Amino acid sequence: MLPAIPDLRQLRYFVAVAEEKHFGRAAARLSMTQPPLSQAIRALEETLGVELFARTKRSVELTPVGADLLPEVQRLLANAEGLRPLAQSLARGEAGVLSLAFVSTADYGLLPLLLRDFGTRHPRVRLELTEATSDVQADELLAGRIDAGLVIAPLPSRHAARLSWLPIVREPLIIAMSTDTAARVSSTAGADPHAEWLDTPISLRDVADAPLVIFPRRLAPGFYDIIMDCYGVAGVAPRVGQEAIQMQTIVSLVSAGMGVALVPQSLRNLRRTGVVYRPLCESVPAIETGLVWRTGEVSPVLAGFIEIARAHAAIDA
């Protein structure tokens, strides 16, 4: 019974005969005798159900089908020969695919740094990037749809046994407000409303009447509670105004005068007309962003990314 598909040995024989146009020379090139070569080519033709060569006593020529098939077979053999080095590259984490999700806040500080270093060290790895909230990332990880994620701590305790966590960067919360709000606060404090506002700390008590623009608590309850605790430290009861999922949307609502927002310090890199960022007078906890992945499921590519993340964590420590 003939095999359903030809093997690589038969395909190499086909290429040798096609290029030499002579069974004897092809056999010598392949370090074999002519009869088994002829038999192998016949078997290949029977497997494919077509004639590849037009044979005479003096010559061997490719049939039209054989001529069209030759470049395809050559390409297939070249790909097969590349399997070993590709497999070794995959094992070393030098090639492959890494599916990475990230919270929107990471896009303005941590993420570009990690991608730059990873791309330099692993240029052959294809990155699949997805922006997602922390809760979505946990679900995607546990479902096996992403390899790792950049999230804001803390992780839900129910996931602790199945997910590994690497803290990378800690940064304080700052307040984002409209330029009109900033001018009003400066005027109330007796400061020059035209002065540089960026590095002048203010208290949440100074904006107690402004609505708070924030994300829904279900998306990142730990982060949400930290923001609420900041108001508690200041002795102010927050008044939640608008809710939005993406940090860019929150800042846009602030620019439109819809309220103020507490955001990680790296959000200063999100330049938006009509928005001023200021540090807080109150002592507030730092926001911790880190890498999370499924415990015990570390591919060579992911191991390379974790190594780079650890290096950045050491710098920030």
TrEMBL record:
Residues 6-63 form the HTH lysR-type domain. InterPro entries: LysR_HTH_N (IPR000847), LysR_subst-bd (IPR005119), WH-like_DNA-bd_sf (IPR036388), WH_DNA-bd_sf (IPR036390). GO terms for molecular function: DNA binding; DNA-binding transcription factor activity. Pfam families: HTH_1, LysR_substrate. GO terms for cellular component: protein-DNA complex. The keyword Transmembrane does not apply. Keywords: DNA-binding, Transcription, Transcription regulation. The keyword Transmembrane does not apply. It comes from the Bacteria. Belongs to the LysR transcriptional regulatory family. This is HTH-type transcriptional regulator IlvR. The gene is ilvR.
